[in-house]
Specification:
Helices cover 45% and strands 13% of the residues. By secondary structure, the protein is α/β, with parallel strands linked by helices. The longest helix has 29 residues.
Protein backbone atom coordinates (compact mmCIF):
# COMPACT_ATOMS: atom_id res chain seq x y z
CA UNK A 1 0.00 0.00 0.00
CA UNK A 2 1.27 3.48 -0.85
CA UNK A 3 2.16 6.07 1.76
CA UNK A 4 -0.77 8.40 0.90
CA UNK A 5 -3.92 7.04 2.50
CA UNK A 6 -7.34 8.12 3.68
CA UNK A 7 -7.88 7.22 7.32
CA UNK A 8 -11.20 6.18 8.91
CA UNK A 9 -11.10 6.27 12.71
CA UNK A 10 -13.21 3.75 14.63
CA UNK A 11 -14.45 3.61 18.19
CA UNK A 12 -15.90 0.51 19.87
CA UNK A 13 -19.37 1.84 18.99
CA UNK A 14 -18.36 2.22 15.35
CA UNK A 15 -17.22 -1.40 15.15
CA UNK A 16 -20.55 -2.51 16.61
CA UNK A 17 -22.52 -0.46 14.06
CA UNK A 18 -20.51 -1.36 10.97
CA UNK A 19 -22.43 -3.60 8.58
CA UNK A 20 -22.45 -4.99 5.05
CA UNK A 21 -25.34 -3.86 2.85
CA UNK A 22 -27.68 -6.79 2.08
CA UNK A 23 -27.94 -5.59 -1.53
CA UNK A 24 -26.16 -2.71 -3.24
CA UNK A 25 -28.12 0.55 -2.95
CA UNK A 26 -29.37 0.95 -6.54
CA UNK A 27 -28.33 4.55 -7.07
CA UNK A 28 -24.88 4.04 -5.56
CA UNK A 29 -24.34 1.15 -7.97
CA UNK A 30 -25.68 3.34 -10.76
CA UNK A 31 -23.00 5.90 -9.93
CA UNK A 32 -20.31 3.20 -10.18
CA UNK A 33 -21.71 1.96 -13.49
CA UNK A 34 -21.73 5.48 -14.96
CA UNK A 35 -18.06 5.87 -14.04
CA UNK A 36 -17.20 2.44 -15.44
CA UNK A 37 -18.97 3.28 -18.71
CA UNK A 38 -16.75 6.32 -19.18
CA UNK A 39 -13.50 4.44 -18.68
CA UNK A 40 -11.92 1.74 -20.81
CA UNK A 41 -10.73 -0.55 -18.04
CA UNK A 42 -11.34 -4.31 -17.77
CA UNK A 43 -12.56 -4.92 -21.34
CA UNK A 44 -13.07 -8.65 -20.77
CA UNK A 45 -15.44 -8.09 -17.88
CA UNK A 46 -17.27 -5.01 -19.12
CA UNK A 47 -16.64 -4.77 -22.87
CA UNK A 48 -19.92 -6.28 -24.08
CA UNK A 49 -21.90 -4.32 -21.50
CA UNK A 50 -20.25 -1.04 -22.54
CA UNK A 51 -20.97 -1.67 -26.22
CA UNK A 52 -24.66 -2.36 -25.59
CA UNK A 53 -25.04 0.61 -23.26
CA UNK A 54 -23.38 3.13 -25.58
CA UNK A 55 -25.59 2.00 -28.43
CA UNK A 56 -28.76 2.57 -26.39
CA UNK A 57 -28.09 5.77 -24.47
CA UNK A 58 -29.80 8.95 -25.62
CA UNK A 59 -27.86 12.21 -25.99
CA UNK A 60 -29.41 13.62 -22.83
CA UNK A 61 -27.53 10.98 -20.81
CA UNK A 62 -24.65 13.45 -20.99
CA UNK A 63 -26.28 15.43 -18.15
CA UNK A 64 -25.75 12.52 -15.76
CA UNK A 65 -22.21 11.92 -16.96
CA UNK A 66 -21.38 15.60 -16.45
CA UNK A 67 -22.25 15.21 -12.77
CA UNK A 68 -20.78 11.71 -12.30
CA UNK A 69 -17.37 11.91 -14.01
CA UNK A 70 -14.95 8.98 -14.35
CA UNK A 71 -12.99 10.29 -11.36
CA UNK A 72 -13.80 12.72 -8.58
CA UNK A 73 -16.81 13.71 -6.52
CA UNK A 74 -20.46 13.50 -7.52
CA UNK A 75 -23.43 15.25 -5.85
CA UNK A 76 -24.71 13.01 -3.07
CA UNK A 77 -28.36 13.84 -3.79
CA UNK A 78 -28.06 11.96 -7.10
CA UNK A 79 -26.70 8.81 -5.47
CA UNK A 80 -28.32 8.29 -2.04
CA UNK A 81 -27.08 5.33 -0.04
CA UNK A 82 -30.59 4.03 0.58
CA UNK A 83 -31.60 0.44 -0.07
CA UNK A 84 -35.00 0.00 -1.68
CA UNK A 85 -36.82 -0.08 -4.96
CA UNK A 86 -35.02 1.78 -7.71
CA UNK A 87 -38.19 3.54 -8.91
CA UNK A 88 -39.02 4.81 -5.45
CA UNK A 89 -35.48 6.10 -4.96
CA UNK A 90 -35.49 7.82 -8.35
CA UNK A 91 -38.70 9.59 -7.37
CA UNK A 92 -37.07 10.77 -4.15
CA UNK A 93 -34.29 12.35 -6.18
CA UNK A 94 -36.93 14.41 -7.99
CA UNK A 95 -38.15 15.70 -4.63
CA UNK A 96 -34.72 16.80 -3.38
CA UNK A 97 -34.97 20.15 -1.55
CA UNK A 98 -33.31 23.08 -3.30
CA UNK A 99 -31.10 23.73 -0.28
CA UNK A 100 -29.73 20.18 -0.51
CA UNK A 101 -28.97 20.58 -4.22
CA UNK A 102 -27.09 23.83 -3.57
CA UNK A 103 -25.12 22.30 -0.71
CA UNK A 104 -24.11 19.19 -2.66
CA UNK A 105 -23.09 21.16 -5.76
CA UNK A 106 -21.04 23.57 -3.63
CA UNK A 107 -19.22 20.65 -2.06
CA UNK A 108 -18.36 19.13 -5.44
CA UNK A 109 -17.22 22.52 -6.77
CA UNK A 110 -14.57 22.62 -4.03
CA UNK A 111 -12.84 19.69 -5.72
CA UNK A 112 -13.38 20.14 -9.44
CA UNK A 113 -15.28 22.47 -11.84
CA UNK A 114 -18.95 21.83 -12.58
CA UNK A 115 -20.61 22.35 -15.98
CA UNK A 116 -22.13 25.84 -16.36
CA UNK A 117 -25.71 24.57 -16.61
CA UNK A 118 -25.62 23.37 -12.98
CA UNK A 119 -25.68 26.98 -11.72
CA UNK A 120 -29.44 27.10 -12.30
CA UNK A 121 -30.24 23.54 -11.24
CA UNK A 122 -31.60 24.33 -7.77
CA UNK A 123 -33.87 27.15 -9.00
CA UNK A 124 -35.06 25.81 -12.36
CA UNK A 125 -37.68 23.04 -11.94
CA UNK A 126 -37.63 22.23 -15.65
CA UNK A 127 -33.86 21.76 -15.63
CA UNK A 128 -34.08 19.49 -12.57
CA UNK A 129 -36.85 17.49 -14.28
CA UNK A 130 -34.67 17.00 -17.36
CA UNK A 131 -31.77 15.83 -15.19
CA UNK A 132 -34.03 13.34 -13.38
CA UNK A 133 -35.47 12.09 -16.66
CA UNK A 134 -31.91 11.52 -17.81
CA UNK A 135 -31.11 9.66 -14.58
CA UNK A 136 -34.15 7.40 -15.07
CA UNK A 137 -33.07 6.66 -18.63
CA UNK A 138 -29.48 5.88 -17.62
CA UNK A 139 -30.69 3.46 -14.95
CA UNK A 140 -32.96 1.70 -17.48
CA UNK A 141 -30.04 1.20 -19.85
CA UNK A 142 -27.11 0.51 -17.53
CA UNK A 143 -28.58 -1.44 -14.62
CA UNK A 144 -32.20 -2.53 -15.04
CA UNK A 145 -31.55 -5.33 -17.58
CA UNK A 146 -28.87 -6.86 -15.34
CA UNK A 147 -30.10 -6.10 -11.82
CA UNK A 148 -30.79 -9.74 -10.90
CA UNK A 149 -27.29 -10.73 -12.01
CA UNK A 150 -25.81 -7.84 -10.01
CA UNK A 151 -27.65 -8.74 -6.81
CA UNK A 152 -26.67 -12.38 -7.24
CA UNK A 153 -22.99 -11.44 -7.52
CA UNK A 154 -23.10 -9.17 -4.48
CA UNK A 155 -24.95 -11.80 -2.44
CA UNK A 156 -22.15 -14.27 -3.12
CA UNK A 157 -19.58 -11.69 -2.02
CA UNK A 158 -21.60 -10.93 1.11
CA UNK A 159 -21.46 -14.62 2.03
CA UNK A 160 -17.66 -14.36 2.03
CA UNK A 161 -17.78 -11.23 4.22
CA UNK A 162 -20.06 -12.94 6.71
CA UNK A 163 -17.62 -15.84 6.84
CA UNK A 164 -14.79 -13.39 7.53
CA UNK A 165 -16.80 -11.80 10.33
CA UNK A 166 -17.53 -15.20 11.88
CA UNK A 167 -13.85 -16.16 11.73
CA UNK A 168 -12.32 -12.87 12.87
CA UNK A 169 -15.06 -10.51 13.98
CA UNK A 170 -15.65 -7.11 12.40
CA UNK A 171 -11.92 -6.43 12.52
CA UNK A 172 -11.32 -9.59 10.46
CA UNK A 173 -13.98 -8.44 8.01
CA UNK A 174 -12.34 -5.03 7.61
CA UNK A 175 -8.89 -6.57 7.18
CA UNK A 176 -10.13 -8.89 4.43
CA UNK A 177 -12.09 -6.42 2.27
CA UNK A 178 -9.34 -5.61 -0.23
CA UNK A 179 -5.87 -6.23 1.25
CA UNK A 180 -4.08 -4.61 -1.67
CA UNK A 181 -5.65 -1.22 -0.92
CA UNK A 182 -7.44 -1.47 2.45
CA UNK A 183 -5.47 -2.05 5.64
CA UNK A 184 -6.80 -2.41 9.16
CA UNK A 185 -4.36 -0.68 11.52
CA UNK A 186 -6.41 -0.64 14.77
CA UNK A 187 -8.34 1.51 15.40
CA UNK A 188 -7.89 3.04 11.92
CA UNK A 189 -8.93 1.71 8.53
CA UNK A 190 -6.46 2.96 5.91
CA UNK A 191 -7.59 3.31 2.30
CA UNK A 192 -5.27 3.75 -0.67
CA UNK A 193 -7.52 5.69 -3.05
CA UNK A 194 -7.03 5.75 -6.83
CA UNK A 195 -7.26 9.54 -6.67
CA UNK A 196 -4.47 9.76 -4.11
CA UNK A 197 -6.93 11.56 -1.81
CA UNK A 198 -5.87 11.65 1.82
CA UNK A 199 -7.48 12.88 5.01
CA UNK A 200 -9.22 11.69 8.13
CA UNK A 201 -12.79 10.67 8.90
CA UNK A 202 -13.91 10.19 12.51
CA UNK A 203 -17.04 8.05 12.53
CA UNK A 204 -18.04 9.25 16.02
CA UNK A 205 -20.31 6.31 16.77
CA UNK A 206 -22.09 6.18 13.40
CA UNK A 207 -20.32 3.09 12.12
CA UNK A 208 -19.70 2.38 8.45
CA UNK A 209 -21.88 0.87 5.72
CA UNK A 210 -19.83 -1.51 3.57
CA UNK A 211 -21.23 -1.79 0.05
CA UNK A 212 -20.00 -4.48 -2.38
CA UNK A 213 -19.97 -3.17 -5.93
CA UNK A 214 -19.98 -5.01 -9.24
CA UNK A 215 -18.88 -1.91 -11.13
CA UNK A 216 -16.48 -0.45 -8.59
CA UNK A 217 -12.83 -0.11 -9.63
CA UNK A 218 -10.19 -2.27 -8.01
CA UNK A 219 -9.96 0.29 -5.22
CA UNK A 220 -12.17 1.60 -2.40
CA UNK A 221 -14.35 4.68 -2.69
CA UNK A 222 -15.82 6.60 0.22
CA UNK A 223 -18.94 8.75 0.54
CA UNK A 224 -18.45 10.73 3.74
CA UNK A 225 -21.77 12.62 3.41
CA UNK A 226 -24.05 9.57 3.11
CA UNK A 227 -26.79 9.25 5.70
CA UNK A 228 -27.28 7.79 8.24
CA UNK A 229 -23.66 6.65 8.10
CA UNK A 230 -20.71 7.03 5.71
CA UNK A 231 -20.44 4.48 2.91
CA UNK A 232 -17.36 2.54 1.85
CA UNK A 233 -17.66 0.85 -1.52
CA UNK A 234 -15.33 -2.00 -2.41
CA UNK A 235 -15.20 -4.28 -5.48
CA UNK A 236 -16.68 -7.74 -5.19
CA UNK A 237 -14.08 -10.49 -5.18
CA UNK A 238 -12.19 -10.45 -8.48
CA UNK A 239 -14.14 -7.54 -9.93
CA UNK A 240 -11.05 -5.53 -10.60
CA UNK A 241 -8.96 -8.31 -12.07
CA UNK A 242 -8.10 -7.96 -15.73
CA UNK A 243 -8.68 -11.67 -16.29
CA UNK A 244 -12.08 -11.83 -14.55
CA UNK A 245 -14.75 -13.55 -16.65
CA UNK A 246 -17.42 -11.39 -18.28
CA UNK A 247 -20.18 -10.59 -15.83
CA UNK A 248 -22.38 -9.40 -18.71
CA UNK A 249 -21.56 -11.72 -21.62
CA UNK A 250 -22.27 -10.69 -25.17
CA UNK A 251 -25.58 -11.69 -26.65
CA UNK A 252 -27.78 -11.88 -23.59
CA UNK A 253 -29.63 -10.07 -20.85
CA UNK A 254 -29.15 -11.00 -17.22
CA UNK A 255 -29.81 -14.60 -16.44
CA UNK A 256 -26.90 -16.56 -17.85
CA UNK A 257 -28.81 -19.31 -19.65
CA UNK A 258 -26.90 -18.73 -22.88
CA UNK A 259 -24.51 -21.57 -23.65
CA UNK A 260 -25.71 -23.68 -20.71
CA UNK A 261 -28.51 -25.75 -22.21
CA UNK A 262 -26.70 -29.08 -22.12
CA UNK A 263 -25.68 -28.46 -18.50
CA UNK A 264 -29.26 -27.51 -17.62
CA UNK A 265 -30.51 -30.79 -19.10
CA UNK A 266 -28.13 -32.63 -16.79
CA UNK A 267 -29.83 -31.00 -13.80
CA UNK A 268 -32.88 -33.24 -14.12
CA UNK A 269 -31.33 -35.86 -11.85
CA UNK A 270 -32.56 -35.83 -8.23
CA UNK A 271 -29.12 -35.56 -6.58
CA UNK A 272 -28.10 -32.45 -8.47
CA UNK A 273 -31.49 -30.90 -7.83
CA UNK A 274 -30.97 -31.57 -4.10
CA UNK A 275 -27.56 -29.89 -4.28
CA UNK A 276 -29.08 -26.83 -5.93
CA UNK A 277 -31.83 -26.63 -3.32
CA UNK A 278 -29.33 -26.97 -0.46
CA UNK A 279 -27.31 -24.06 -1.87
CA UNK A 280 -30.45 -21.96 -2.22
CA UNK A 281 -31.43 -22.69 1.37
CA UNK A 282 -27.90 -22.12 2.74
CA UNK A 283 -26.21 -19.43 0.58
CA UNK A 284 -22.49 -19.15 1.20
CA UNK A 285 -22.11 -22.81 2.19
CA UNK A 286 -18.81 -24.55 1.54
CA UNK A 287 -18.41 -27.69 -0.55
CA UNK A 288 -17.81 -29.71 2.62
CA UNK A 289 -20.94 -28.31 4.26
CA UNK A 290 -22.91 -28.96 1.09
CA UNK A 291 -21.77 -32.59 1.03
CA UNK A 292 -22.88 -33.05 4.63
CA UNK A 293 -26.29 -31.47 4.00
CA UNK A 294 -26.99 -33.65 0.95
CA UNK A 295 -25.26 -36.76 2.35
CA UNK A 296 -22.92 -37.24 -0.59
CA UNK A 297 -19.13 -37.36 -0.85
CA UNK A 298 -17.25 -34.04 -1.07
CA UNK A 299 -15.85 -35.06 -4.46
CA UNK A 300 -19.39 -35.66 -5.74
CA UNK A 301 -20.56 -32.33 -4.33
CA UNK A 302 -17.69 -30.62 -6.13
CA UNK A 303 -18.66 -32.25 -9.43
CA UNK A 304 -22.30 -31.16 -9.06
CA UNK A 305 -21.36 -27.56 -8.23
CA UNK A 306 -19.16 -27.45 -11.33
CA UNK A 307 -22.15 -28.36 -13.51
CA UNK A 308 -24.46 -25.96 -11.69
CA UNK A 309 -21.94 -23.15 -12.05
CA UNK A 310 -21.49 -23.86 -15.77
CA UNK A 311 -25.25 -23.62 -16.19
CA UNK A 312 -25.34 -20.23 -14.47
CA UNK A 313 -27.41 -21.56 -11.55
CA UNK A 314 -24.89 -20.91 -8.78
CA UNK A 315 -21.97 -18.59 -8.17
CA UNK A 316 -18.81 -19.71 -6.38
CA UNK A 317 -16.33 -17.45 -4.62
CA UNK A 318 -13.28 -18.35 -2.55
CA UNK A 319 -12.48 -17.44 1.04
CA UNK A 320 -8.90 -18.50 1.74
CA UNK A 321 -8.87 -22.12 0.55
CA UNK A 322 -12.64 -22.65 0.82
CA UNK A 323 -15.12 -22.51 -2.07
CA UNK A 324 -18.40 -20.88 -1.05
CA UNK A 325 -21.53 -21.40 -3.14
CA UNK A 326 -24.60 -19.17 -3.52
CA UNK A 327 -27.58 -19.39 -5.90
CA UNK A 328 -28.02 -17.04 -8.83
CA UNK A 329 -31.36 -15.50 -9.70
CA UNK A 330 -31.74 -18.09 -12.47
CA UNK A 331 -31.14 -20.94 -10.03
CA UNK A 332 -33.77 -19.62 -7.66
CA UNK A 333 -36.23 -19.14 -10.52
CA UNK A 334 -35.65 -22.71 -11.66
CA UNK A 335 -36.38 -24.05 -8.19
CA UNK A 336 -39.50 -21.90 -7.94
CA UNK A 337 -40.84 -23.08 -11.31
CA UNK A 338 -43.81 -25.51 -11.27
CA UNK A 339 -41.71 -28.21 -12.92
CA UNK A 340 -38.62 -27.68 -10.77
CA UNK A 341 -36.10 -30.51 -11.19
CA UNK A 342 -36.54 -32.00 -7.73
CA UNK A 343 -39.92 -33.29 -8.90
CA UNK A 344 -38.39 -35.17 -11.80
Amino acid sequence: MGTVVYRIHFTVEDLARTRVAPVPPPLIELSSSVRTLQTGGHPVRFGAWRSRARARLRPDARMVMDLIPPRGWAPTFLTPAEVGGARELLERVRATPRSRIRRDLAHVAEWHPLPPWTRDLADDPDLLRRLCDSLDHVFDVLLAPSWERITSATAADRAVRMRQALDGGIEGLLAGLLPSRIRWNPPVLELAMLSGFDGDLHLEGRGLLLVPSVFGPNAPTIDIDAQPQPVLRYPIGGAGSSDSPPLFPAGGRSGGRSGGRSALAALLGPTRAAVLRAIAEHPGCSTKELAARTRIASSSASEHTTVLRSAGLIRTVRHRNTALHSPTAVGISLLDAPDAPERG
